[in-house]
């Protein structure tokens, strides 16, 4: 049963300008496993985290550090939830995620579907 769906779109150039203006933002938004990815991939990861939050109903108090999006060779991306984000997912009974991310022509996008 689908519990929530989230979608987000990010302008890659605008996102990168924001990261450059606020250097500590990279550390605040991304886990160590994500921080060194290429710019378009970072924007896509940010869109994915936003989509995940929306699928959870966008409650306050969640940390960006509590969601990591991993690349899987030959498969869809995988989300690893910990801490505050995992607690919300557990409370909602979410047992699986479907995540799609893309970046092309200066736009990064993501769709997240939460199931129980």
From TrEMBL:
Signal peptide: none
One Pfam family hit: ACPS
Compartments where located: Cytoplasm
Superkingdom of origin organism: Bacteria
GO molecular function, one term: magnesium ion binding
One Gene Ontology cellular component annotation held by this UniProt entry: cytoplasm
UniProt entry keywords in alphabetical sequence: Cytoplasm, Fatty acid biosynthesis, Fatty acid metabolism, Lipid biosynthesis, Lipid metabolism, Magnesium, Metal-binding, Transferase
All residue ranges annotated as the 4'-phosphopantetheinyl transferase domain in the record: 4-92
Chief subcellular location: cytoplasm
BP GO annotations: fatty acid biosynthetic process
InterPro entries named in the record: 4-PPantetheinyl_Trfase_dom, 4-PPantetheinyl_Trfase_dom_sf, ACPS, Ppantetheine-prot_Trfase_dom
Cofactor section: Mg(2+)
Binding of Mg(2+), residues: 8, 50
Transferase recorded as keyword: yes
EC number: 2.7.8.7
Function: Transfers the 4'-phosphopantetheine moiety from coenzyme A to a Ser of acyl-carrier-protein.
Family: Belongs to the P-Pant transferase superfamily. AcpS family.
Protein name: Holo-[acyl-carrier-protein] synthase
High-level lineage: Bacteria, Bacillati, Actinomycetota, Actinomycetes, Micrococcales
Gene that specifies this protein: acpS
């Amino acid at each position: 049963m689908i519990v929530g769906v989230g979608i987000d779109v990010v302008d890659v150039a605008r996102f990168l300008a924001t990261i450059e203006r606020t250097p500590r933002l990279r550390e605040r938004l991304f886990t160590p496993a994500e921080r060194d990815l290429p710019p378009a991939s970072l924007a896509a990861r940010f869109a994915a985290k936003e989509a995940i939050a929306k699928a959870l109903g966008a409650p306050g108090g969640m940390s960006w550090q509590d969601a990591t999006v991993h690349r899987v060779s030959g498969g869809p991306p995988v989300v690893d939830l910990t801490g505050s984000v995992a607690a919300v997912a557990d409370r909602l009974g979410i047992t699986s995620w479907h995540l799609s991310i893309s970046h092309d022509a200066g736009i990064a996008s993501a769709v997240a579907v939460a199931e129980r």
